[in-house]
Design a protein that fits this description.
Lipocalin, 6 helices, binds 2-acetamido-2-deoxy-beta-D-glucopyranose
Length: about 475
């Protein structure tokens, strides 16, 4: 009996819409020269989808490239040539609105196409899985004592496959969501088209807010599709060698495009100066930085910079402080109730690392422990402005035997230690309040990891490894492809 071997592939990790690439990047992307672009069909098999095939001058075209090196689907939208001249400001405004919706329509269609295709894999594989399980059960009953070893092997395989089923379920839900967006946008496009003809009574505010809300939902949907389960961590790349054995460094996942400022904090206590490097390149090549003095010294290495502010644990307390770099003011401080501090429930390496703040696709989190939870890890989702706890999860993992932890897509990943051979071995899913043991190697290049955090923008792990600042890429899987052997 041959067992379908699951080959999991990065299919739809992130959908990136790159709008202003028309003249420079697009030709190299599709290997063609701009002047030929309007002749959409032919030429680039499977990769280009000409949409709204009216007059090429006015049509919109979407190019969905092969996956890039990070497994992303890169979509390029080519705008029609500007032909109409605007009659008045309102015409222009309406046209922009329509354009926006059309832009969205294109991206949704591409998303939808991919989703449909991937869904076919998913459904097929799901059937196979379920079929295999049933068959196996029958066979098992019929041959209770027979060729036990062989069955054991198949059974192990089954156990391996079973957790994939909920992932598939979730995927199907995503596909439905995309379908719904598609309808909504089609409706909106239609009504905008009518309005454009009539140019009479319409309410910009209403239209605008509908567009904005659709955009938000689309973004949320894409983000969801971009999420997945951690299945691999690349080897470490050393970015810089500086500072003491303990510290933390990061970039802001919500920084505006082009802002790659690096934030750097040496040591785990008795320091309140945060270094700001202008860019990642500057950080790598120079020691040119500006310093920000925090109102209090920090504790541990669990700081995080998020949307222009640093969030940190005040030394010898369970206070969380939000400090805005732009205005150099403490915009909020709030006690994290019941959280142990001052080396009560530290990570295995010590260093007053009782409260670890982090950010993932879903927002701001605190990872700590309480007496109430017997020193086991507690995860709290925090409101980024009020610092109030939105929701908490109690795990069964002792805080002190965790090496470090980081959050990706609502799942907390915990390492087994800070020195020697290190791996990520425990995962707690806040979506389902369940945990599992996993086994993902984490290269510990310099033998002492005192900080490890995920950055959802870079899809990278930032680590402080014994006075070295290192980065790891992560592989997240969302869609599953099956391959028969
Ligand atoms: C684009 O194609 C035209 C004609 O096919 C050619 O004259 C021109 O040099 C090309 N431009 C580039 C940048 O390759
Ligand atoms: C639509 O996409 C084009 C690029 O293809 C861009 O120039 C334009 O600003 C976008 N329109 C809106 C309203 O976002
Ligand atoms: C789209 O429009 C049709 C007819 O106007 C309506 O029945 C349908 O509910 C609309 N769909 C959405 C998602 O708004
Ligand atoms: C250091 O940074 C400042 C401002 O960011 C800049 O003016 C200066 O030229 C830089 N110096 C060096 C040596 O890179
Ligand atoms: C980021 O900060 C800006 C203001 O500085 C605010 O408008 C925006 O909502 C914030 N975003 C998030 C996700 O907190
Ligand atoms: C929760 O998320 C994890 C990983 O992201 C996934 O494996 C699991 O199936 C999800 N569970 C539910 C109930 O959505
Ligand atoms: C992560 O992947 C990108 C793109 O492939 C690559 O440029 C970068 O060097 C990688 N970083 C690490 C830490 O492996």
């Amino acid at each position: 009996m041959s067992v379908p071997l699951l080959k999991i592939g990065v299919v739809l990790s992130t959908m990136a819409m790159i709008t202003n690439w028309m003249s420079q990047t697009l030709p190299s992307l599709v290997g063609l020269n701009t002047t030929k672009l309007t002749a959409a069909q032919g030429g680039y098999p499977d990769r280009s989808i000409g949409v709204l095939p009216a007059n090429p001058e006015e049509s919109w075209q979407v190019y969905s490239s092969a996956q890039d090196s990070e497994g992303r689907c890169v979509c390029t939208v080519v705008a029609p040539q500007q032909t109409m001249c605007s009659r008045d400001a309102r015409t222009k405004q309406l046209r922009q609105l329509l354009e926006k919706v059309q832009n969205m329509t294109q991206s949704i269609q591409v998303l939808d196409q991919r989703t449909q295709r991937d869904l076919q894999y998913v459904v097929k594989m799901e059937d196979q899985l379920r079929g295999l399980e049933t068959k196996f059960r029958q066979v098992e009953e019929n041959h209770k004592q027979n060729i036990a070893k062989q069955y054991k092997a198949i059974k192990a395989k089954m156990a391996e496959l079973r957790p994939l089923i909920p992932v598939l379920e979730e995927y199907k839900a995503d596909a439905r969501l995309v379908q719904q967006f598609k309808e909504e946008v089609q409706n909106l496009t239609a009504s905008l088209g009518l309005l454009q003809q009539e140019m009479g009574a319409y309410d910009y505010d209403d239209l605008h807010s509908r567009v904005v809300s659709l955009e938000e939902r689309l973004r949320a949907c894409m983000q969801k599709l971009a999420c997945g389960k951690l299945t691999g961590i690349s080897d470490a790349i050393t970015i810089k060698t500086s500072g003491s054995r303990f510290g933390s460094w990061m970039t802001d996942p919500l920084a505006p495009e082009g802002d790659t400022r690096v934030w750097y904090m040496d040591g785990y206590h008795n320091n309140r100066f945060v270094r700001e490097y202008k860019s990642m390149a500057d950080f790598m090549t120079s020691d040119n930085f500006t310093s920000h003095r925090l109102p209090h010294p920090w504790s541990g290495t669990g700081q995080v910079v998020y949307n222009g502010s640093i969030y940190f644990n005040k030394f010898q307390s369970n206070m969380i402080i939000k400090f805005d770099f732009k205005t150099s003011t403490m915009s909020k401080s709030q006690r994290l109730d019941n959280a142990g501090f001052s080396n009560t429930y530290h990570y295995a390496w010590g260093g007053h690392s009782d409260i670890d703040l982090m950010v993932d696709e879903g927002g701001l989190w605190a990872v700590y422990a309480t007496n109430q939870n017997a020193g086991n890890i507690v995860i709290s989702k925090l409101h980024p402005i009020t610092l109030h706890i939105i929701q908490s999860w109690t795990t069964n993992h002792p805080r002190r035997s965790a090496g470090e932890s980081f959050m990706i897509c609502g799942t907390l990943y915990v390492t087994n230690g800070y020195s020697g051979g290190t791996k990520v071995y425990y995962a707690y899913h806040t979506n389902s309040s369940t945990y599992e043991y996993i086994d993902i190697v984490l290269q510990n290049k310099y033998s002492h990891i005192s900080m490890l955090d995920y950055n959802p923008r870079d899809r990278a792990l930032y680590a402080w490894n014994n006075g070295h600042q290192v980065l790891y890429n992560v592989t997240l899987f969302h869609v599953i492809r099956s391959e028969q052997l």
